[in-house]
From TrEMBL, chain A:
<protein>
    <recommendedName>
        <fullName>F-box domain-containing protein</fullName>
    </recommendedName>
</protein>
<feature type="domain" description="F-box">
    <location>
        <begin position="1"/>
        <end position="48"/>
    </location>
</feature>
<dbReference type="Pfam" id="PF00646">
    <property type="entry name" value="F-box"/>
</dbReference>
<dbReference type="InterPro" id="IPR001810">
    <property type="entry name" value="F-box_dom"/>
</dbReference>
Automatic annotation (TrEMBL), chain B:
<feature type="domain" description="SKP1 component POZ">
    <location>
        <begin position="8"/>
        <end position="71"/>
    </location>
</feature>
<dbReference type="Pfam" id="PF01466">
    <property type="entry name" value="Skp1"/>
</dbReference>
<dbReference type="InterPro" id="IPR011333">
    <property type="entry name" value="SKP1/BTB/POZ_sf"/>
</dbReference>
<dbReference type="InterPro" id="IPR036296">
    <property type="entry name" value="SKP1-like_dim_sf"/>
</dbReference>
<feature type="domain" description="SKP1 component dimerisation">
    <location>
        <begin position="123"/>
        <end position="170"/>
    </location>
</feature>
<dbReference type="InterPro" id="IPR016073">
    <property type="entry name" value="Skp1_comp_POZ"/>
</dbReference>
<dbReference type="GO" id="GO:0006511">
    <property type="term" value="P:ubiquitin-dependent protein catabolic process"/>
</dbReference>
<dbReference type="InterPro" id="IPR001232">
    <property type="entry name" value="SKP1-like"/>
</dbReference>
<protein>
    <recommendedName>
        <fullName>Skp1-related protein</fullName>
    </recommendedName>
</protein>
């Protein structure tokens, strides 16, 4: 008897308990397990994050903290850095790493408009209890609003830096928590 | 209503018969359904008649586990979406699985028990065996995983290189 002949309900449960690093190794074991990794849910992680902080914004805040790897993704305790020119290749890889994933809280910070569509596509088949936006500039707020419009089914929370243009706040959708940071 | 003193005769795929207390079989959704829904004479549940491939040796292991867990609360708690831990296997269950290490093919025994737990709908046993297998795999190298899971690598070197190249995104 092979592990791959075990009931689907068992394999699905097993794969939900695997760390991402274990999924990476399992897809290298054989063709059948490579397919199993792609076809199964990755389970629940308390925290995840997409962090894109590339250009200096109009408020003069500091630029990229990640040099040539401006898109940083965190799943649990795993950090992933993706060069800008490989973002859409990475989306293909993501579909081969799991079919779905759940998060308690997923933080988003995107200061680069060209990355908004990537974020929307990346979050496909995600289940997120709270999508948490950290807004430190007008550009980040604009991008956050675009992402909210693209994934309207998630509950949101937001932390806003005091330098944000107050007029922009009228465009905010309803959300669970809106937190104003004080200087 | 479950009558704990009622005896139930189970017939395995290889023709053996085992009589057990209803106190044990109440943990098997399949057997309870068979007793409740099917026309069962003399409380006998012929497993093979409903195409459940559970042999005598595997059923004895299942009954051993059921005997230890006869007083577990029912219904078994529904899994939540957050459930991913595998480090909470009771000590008796750990020893129960360790005991298989002395057998010639422990992995085949584990797979047989998993299959039986699924067919008989014994959620607690299925959950425990899932955690056991997860613990065996977690943190292992590719080679160790192949050895534990008895898998043959059927990739070409080029295919392996391509997968490693993709995996590298997560390993920087």
């Amino acid at each position: 008897m092979s592990i791959l002949s075990l009931p689907d309900v068992f394999l699905n449960d097993l794969m939900r308990r695997m760390a991402i690093q274990d999924r990476l190794n399992l897809r290298l074991t054989c063709r059948a397990f490579e397919r199993t990794v792609a076809d199964t849910h990755a389970g629940y992680f308390e925290e995840g994050e997409i962090y894109v902080h590339h250009h200096k914004d109009r408020n003069g805040l500091r630029g990229s903290a990640y040099g040539k790897s401006p898109v940083k993704i965190r799943i649990g305790d795993l950090d992933i850095k993706i060069p800008n020119h490989e973002l859409y290749d990475f989306l293909g890889f993501r579909t081969r790493l799991f079919s779905g994933i759940s998060f308690g809280r997923f933080k988003i910070h995107v200061d680069q408009e060209s990355t908004v569509e990537f974020v929307r596509l990346f979050l496909t088949n995600f289940k997120i209890e709270v999508l948490d936006f950290s807004v430190i500039s007008d550009i980040v707020l604009e991008n956050s609003l675009k992402i909210m419009a693209a994934v309207p089914h998630f509950p949101y929370t937001m932390s806003i830096h005091p330098l944000i243009d107050a007029e922009m706040l009228q465009f905010l959708p309803p959300m669970e928590v809106l937190h104003f940071l004080v200087e | 209503r479950i009558y704990p003193l009622m005896r139930v005769t189970l017939t395995t795929s290889d023709g053996a018969s085992v009589t057990v207390s209803r106190q044990l079989t109440k943990h098997s959704g399949f057997i309870e359904k068979a007793i409740t829904d099917m026309a069962v004479d003399d409380n006998a549940v012929p497993l093979s008649a409903v195409a459940v491939d559970v042999d005598d040796a595997t059923l004895k292991l299942v009954i051993e586990w059921l005997t230890e867990h006869r007083d577990d609360a029912l219904p078994y708690p529904e899994k939540t979406d957050e459930e991913r831990r595998a480090d909470d296997i009771p000590a008796w269950d750990q020893a129960f699985v360790q005991k298989w290490d002395t057998k010639e093919d422990q992995q085949q025994t584990l797979y047989a028990v998993i299959t039986a737990a699924d067919k008989l709908d014994i959620k607690g046993l299925l959950d425990m065996t899932c955690k056991t297998l997860a613990n065996k795999i977690n943190g292992k190298t590719v080679e160790e995983m192949r050895e534990i899971l008895q898998l043959e690598c059927d990739f070409t070197e080029e295919e392996l290189a391509e997968i490693r190249k993709e995996n590298a995104w997560c390993e920087n």
